[in-house]
Amino acid sequence: MVDNKSPIMERIAEANKAATTGIDATDIKNWIEIYIMGKAYKVPADLTILTAMEYAGYKFVRGVGCRQGFCGACATVFRKKGDYKLQTGMACQTRAEDGMYLVQIPFTPAEKADYDITKEPYEASVFIKYYPEVTRCVSCNTCTKACPQDLEVMDYVQDAIRGDFNALADISFDCIQCGLCAMRCPAEIVQYHVAQLGRRMFGRYGQGVPDHLRKRVKEINEGKFNQEMARITTCAIDELRKIYTEREKEPE
Amino acid sequence: MAELTYIEGYPEYMRKEIEKVAKTRDKRLDYTPPAMTMKQRDEVLRVHPDYAPGGKREISVGPNKGQNAPNEVADLLEAYPLVEKGEVDLSQIDYNPDILIIGGGLAGTSAALWAHDSGVAKENILLTNKLRHGDANSIMAEGGTQAADREVDSIVKHYIDTIGGGHFTNKPDVTRALVEDAPLIMKWLCELGAIFDREENGDLAEKLAGGLSVKRMHSCRDYTGLEEFRVLRDEFRTRGISYLEHYPAIELLTEGNRVTGAILWNIETGDYKIVKAKATIIATGGYGRLHIRGFPTTNHYGATFDGVVLAYRAGAKLRDIDAVQYHPTGAAYPIQIVGYLLTEKLRGSGAQPVNADGEAFVYPLEPRDVEAASIIRECYVRDKGITTPTGLRGVWLDTPLIEIKNGKGYIEKAFPGMIRMYKRYDIDIRKDPVLVFPTLHYQNGGVETDPSGRTNIEGLWVAGEVSGGVHGKNRLMGNSTLDCLVFGRRAGMSTADYVKSYSGEISVTIDHLNQYVQQLEEAGIKRTRRAPIILPDYRGKAALARMIDVF
Amino acid sequence: MTTTKPETTKTTATGNSKIPYYPGCTLKTTAKNFENSALAAARALGIELLEIPRWNCCGTVFSLADDDLIHHVASVRNFIRVQEMNDYGLVKNENRLVTLCAMCFNTLKSTNLRMKNNAEDLSKINDLMYREEDYQGKVEVIHFLEVLKALGFEKIHDRVKKPLKDLKVAPYYGCMILRPQEVGIDDPEDPTIQRDLLESLGADAVDTPYKRVCCGSYQTVKDKDIVAELAYDILTHAQKEGAEALATVCPLCAFNLDHRQKEVKAKHPDFTEIPVFYVTQLMAIAFGLDGECYGFDQNYVDPRPLLRKKSLIEQQQES
């Protein structure tokens, strides 16, 4: 029994149990019913789609990755109770709700073009060359509606068509490449790959390598710091400690 | 218990607590608690999970026998292999690359790119992944990458900050490599087209972080690792380098004292593949999913320590394996996101940790272990934490301060990921603080290497979180993505040199496993545990209790 | 949503009129010289063409199929953006949408007419785009030439600082601003709007019967030969009438008549190259505007030798 007098570490472990081990039904007060690929399961109320499926007994080897909304592995299609709309989201970021119907999308078989960005002109033509289907965009906005990151996907496709790399990079930056946009697109555009190409072009040509960075790399190659590094890497711990404690700090 | 009423994401009683934070905000605007002295640091570290009693034991077998490790780590090092003598057919070689890379995060992927750059043909490199290429802690790195590239900065300062943060336990030669290569790595990323935050004049925008003496943190909003990684993966795919997905390595293969490949396991169908390789790079990341001391984690689903387990059985030496990094600010509320990372960049941008009385109780940018211990002390020793409806305790991270200091609109621009994460639970981090508590974040130690990533075992290199030494016993923010990129590169180049000059024939055996099993048996360890565990298990207890294994 | 409400801008003290401006993709890529020269010329006349925020592709080609509503969505979305400009105060009671590109003009205006004349189509499209505010059917699609005409060619003449004296230019109209009649901005059989404009700039407008013959349009992608033959006819007939250059407002016509001269020359070795201007480039020259906006680098046949000969640009004038 863990109580207020128990060692701190035991109390912390007890409080975090739900996030570190499988959930024990006896700890749960509120329940909901969800339909995983059509089958009904009773699961605790405060879970994400991902953890609700795990509670139900699924051990994921597909459709799961970072579990925190960064990797785009757990794309999910779901429908809420009483709603006709098929919605999309990340299983790890979407709350499981009572009456939800859901299925996970384990893989996006989308084609990524091969290119060497060092050999491409910094122009809209690069998109037409590698992803000519972008011009098929009819501006239906289905991609935007599908995006679990709430990005304005259609807008960045339009930016690609007109060669506005800066705007494309800005709008598409938070893309986690889950592929839901491409799967919903009636024009068969692979938006997230288009964006990747555009961002790299912007990074390389729109931003480039700043002078201060170029300069520092040159200084290191020329051995500017060699002497000091040799000294600091061999000096005694006590001296290092002193240097560390007394070092100047740049103000915020 | 009565149903709770929620107001903008928080239950009513927590709303009252939030008012206390709002009330002291103006006062705290110009007040930052002073940084701790070395003595104060030592004192607070007593409640850090690494130092609090009961968490560790001696490892009873292998190269590091007799050294301390967290129980969960020792459990896996003392576990029996998944395959033993006679259980696998090694006569049929399925893949025969020059270089096998296990793990496709930042480290593994940059190793592949640099090996390719160094003249190894794309079909002679094989990168294998447990899940998808890029399902890794790398892409979850929010805050940034350190590199001393400003005029006022120097690689020497970077070195001193890193060593001091690591409590002077770092291995000097590898730490030197880390700081020396950092600017070169930044240049490489820029050339590949990674988009970093910039100043108006086009210079890289750089920030402070815990333990840094100079602004040196480069970020890509709060998706730094994601941006760096997806650029590398795009380049990797474009070059057509061979890779496998959903094929974790379950054991290394050896010939005498050298590593000659690995056994891969199809995680969906269960069959195995034999890879024979002249050089093997392990880049499998860390161990957050071991939930050391029962802590939640910021880590990826597959962060289960596999790489170290495999290397250790083959005779690789470990170091600093006793030191676990807990990130000071994991989410403590709501329950769905407990343990998720709230980047240190938030504190670097002005957010303060605040206790239940609305007091700023700690310098926001202490090294991570000190900061984490201070929060634990506030919650469990001084009883100035806030308790959530599910019984967790935490302190506030006063995020609204960020916009007061940096101007309106700053959070949306710099922390889109954080806004998004909390918005899903109706919390607006621009208006309200968030509740935080330390979360298991990083494997400080690991397999020991030389500056090229080479281990004490011939044919075996490691890169990234799986390695030990570069961070000593405590890693600074911004040095992990850097670690992956620097030592991925070095391992890629070093293995390329190695395989080009190696002409002898090699064979594959699992003799080292047989020897290890013998050691385990001699040490009297029962056959209750097997490793690597590949993935953690979060299935509901009720479902597990009634499962029948039929197929 | 990543979009933020645009800042309200005030009408300038001089009373410049601000009109929502729809560029289209070509003007941002291969016809930057058209956009730059037009925006500068408009500014010189006190007209501010205000780029529509978040504009998207016009739809490229107006779909004639009755049941192909989805291809009109793109156009309608742009009309909604114009409504939003009014809502956000970027413009005041301004329902005009002005285009430079003749293709965009034709597509947008055709769709707009269909929406105005067919309430059922409009409501279907509005339903499909339920996340947008409804299109109210009030936008008016106009071409920049119409803005100029409304302003009055005498006013344009007054603004001229460097008359295009002795420059013989054949206005070329193509199809998109003339046909079909309900979309066209001028007499489809005998258009005069470009002639009037050129004359107000001081140029000699040369008439040619080929001024409204199709340039070959998108055949240029599939079969360069068809276009080369058409271009040969159009260009040589203009030359026969004494033209030293052509002027157009359509980027596709410009491409086919200018860039395809390479293919024309290959098929007809006797052919002499002839510059093709966007009429706005000529406006910019006549107004004496900064050479930066001319953008001659994007012209295939370099018009600078001709302009130098006529003393319309400096001997060493770049771009």
UniProtKB/TrEMBL annotation, chain C:
A GO term for molecular function: oxidoreductase activity
InterPro entries documented for this protein: Cys_rich_dom, HdrB/HdrD_reductase
Keyword tags: Oxidoreductase
Protein name: Cysteine-rich domain-containing protein
Cysteine-rich domain segment(s): 21-109, 169-258
PANTHER family named among the record's database cross-references: COB--COM HETERODISULFIDE REDUCTASE SUBUNIT B 1
